[in-house]
Design goal:
One of its GO terms (cellular component) is replication fork. The protein has about 325 residues and is of the alpha/beta class. It contains 15 helices and twelve strands. Helices cover about 40% and strands about 20% of the residues. Helix 7 packs across helix 8 and helix 13 packs across helix 15.
Length: about 325
């Protein structure tokens, strides 16, 4: 709306020509100036400047929505991607929610990527089998995506479907894998994603993992006040989920943090050193990327290992 041309807003021709002569072309150009500065720049009476600003504001302002209309829109376009894990789907009221940012966090080797591969299969499954019958964009930042492993998961989870109907090649062809090598590459790929979502009927977006995009130095700064290194990417992912009404799933790693900061999950084990000093340094594991990232996530699923053979999934 802010890029709307002033020449198309129905202002008096004489005033519209003055705006053009002063290189004030869009609504943003005009509304960024104080009224008195605009009056001086256009060399018109204050009343005329205020009238022009009111007209530009009226046209450039997006239409309002009531809380009721927002609720009805959300109900009409809502939904979930079932995970086929009954307990998890019950807790999430049906599965991974549409239009929201869902984070998977846990230590290495706990099964985050495997869970993402299964979600990818579920999104490409025909609707008659409980899937979304769509495409998947899988952003693989750590080169962990394995087509062979994904097919194995499909054959073990849905043996009758995969073996009898030969869906494996068809479903694999619906998964678009991207491998950005840096945060700037990832940012560039996001700019092209809105169009891809519409053109390819994408029903799921996965980023595995977000923490891998941030260097050690940037990650340490993520826990401190100030601009988060992934702030713009996070904002874009949330708007993408809301705009397209699809589930967006991201994985996150864990990292060490000093004992004076609270921890909540069993994977956050204390590790004491052998220092004999009275001021011992103790650390534990917490989700990476800092508090700003945590507050922006809609649903956090925490993978915890209790023993070699037992693990749990907690919903935050």
């Amino acid at each position: 709306m802010s890029n709307k041309l002033i020449s198309q807003m129905g202002l008096p021709p004489s005033l519209s020509h003055v705006f053009a002569a002063r290189s004030i072309i869009t609504a943003k150009d005009a509304l960024s100036l104080p009224e008195f500065d605009l009056m001086a720049l256009l060399d018109v009476p204050l009343a005329h400047a205020r009238s022009a600003v009111a007209r530009i504001s009226e046209i450039a302002c997006p239409p309002y929505q009531t809380a009721l209309s927002l609720m009805e829109d959300r109900a009409g376009s809502g939904g979930h991607l079932p995970t086929m894990l009954r307990g998890l789907d019950d807790a999430l009221c049906g599965g991974i929610p549409f239009g929201a940012l869902t984070e998977l966090v846990g230590p290495p080797g706990i099964g985050k990527t495997q869970f993402c591969l299964k979600l990818s299969l579920l999104a490409t499954l025909p609707a008659c089998y409980g899937g979304l019958n769509g495409r998947v964009i899988y952003i693989d930042t750590e080169s962990k995506f394995s087509s062979r492993r994904m097919i194995e998961i499909g054959e073990n989870s849905f043996p009758q479907i995969f073996r009898s109907e030969g869906l494996a090649p068809k479903m694999a062809g619906r998964i678009i894998v991207m491998r950005p090598t840096s945060l700037s590459d990832f940012t560039d790929s996001l700019q092209q994603m809105k169009l891809s979502l519409l053109q390819h009927e994408v029903k799921l977006l996965i980023v595995d993992s977000m923490a891998a995009l941030v260097s050690g130095e940037n990650e340490r700064s993520a826990g401190r006040p100030g601009r988060h290194p992934l702030r713009s990417s996070l904002s874009f992912l949330k708007s993408l989920a809301e705009f397209s009404r699809i589930p967006v799933v991201v994985t996150n790693q864990v990292r060490s943090q000093s004992k004076d900061e609270a921890y909540y999950h069993t994977f956050q084990e204390e590790r004491k050193d052998n220092c004999q000093n009275s001021e011992k340094f103790e650390s534990h594991l917490i989700a990476a990327l800092g508090i700003q990232w945590a507050h922006a996530v809609t649903v956090r699923l925490v993978f915890e290992a209790h023993s070699e053979y037992e693990s749990t999934l907690a919903i935050i």
